Structures are given as structure tokens and as C-alpha cells.
Amino acid sequence: DSGMNALHSSLDIPVISPGLASYLMCLMLGRRFSVLTQWKPWTLIYEKSLQEYGLKDKCVSIRSPDIPPDTTNLLGGKEDVVFPKLLESGLQCVEDGAHAICLGSTTMHQAHSFLAENLPVPVINPGPLSYKMAEAVLDLGLTHARAAFPNPTVWNKDMTHAMMDGAAKMVAS
To answer: Does the N terminus or the C terminus of the chain have fewer Cβ atoms within 10 A?
Structure first.
């Protein structure tokens, strides 16, 4: 969700944060949730966002099999090794008391179906959820509140364009 506040302030179109959307969906499906992430060093990112969103007390655990990311192939080609380890960490989330689990990254989408079929709680896939949330917000004619996200006093258009260009490049590859 890094950069979301800047985008909310700079843009007049709806901006959906995959992490926040996932956390809130988990809370619509249960009272407590866990974050399942691939790599342990990313835990700090989730702790920070949970604190920022005021949801730290609703998250019972952040679990990880501590598998370093492959930014090129993601989980592709490693399913036989990675999926069972993610499942083991997911089962620990359930033991921790999670009513739902959110995948910690859109880069984990390849594991969603496997985990959803093999875990006894709902598993939230942040990418598709974000698209559906954006579609709903647009269909309802809504956008973020300017009182919460005022326009910046100095707008760095180059930074905003670079963020959008970077996202477009990632989607294209």
C-alpha cells in the first residue's frame, strides 16, 4: 500500500489499496484475521500498515515460510516446494485464531486457489479484490474524501507519473 496516500491526495479518481481492501474484507468475513506473506523481512511492512489503519488488534498473526521473492517468475515453477510451505504457515494462522487470511502481496496470486482449497478459512487474494472494489466504487460514483486526503500544497507531477508508469510497466511484464 506504499504510495497510496500520495495517490489519494494527488488524484481525483478512486485509488484502492490492496492491503487495506484485504484487511477490511477479512473483517467482513470474520472478526480476526492473519496475514500470510512469503518472506519474513516483509513482516515490518504489514505491522506498519496495520498500525496506520488502526487494525493491529484485529490481526492475530503475520506468518511466513520465509521464502525469498523471485520478482521475475514470482511463484511460477516452484509450486511443489512453495505451496506446501505456504499451506503450513496458513494452518498456523488458523491455529492462531484467524477467521480469514489475506495474502500479503499481489505477487502471491498463483498460490491463492491452492490455499483457498486447502485452508478451512476464507483466503483473500488482494489483486482481484482490489479490481472488484475499484469497479464497485466507480459504479457507485464514489471517490475518496478530500477532507481525509487534501490536495498537496506542492504537487510533484513527475513523481506521480513515475509511480503510474512503474505500475503500468509491471502490469505489462
So the answer is: C
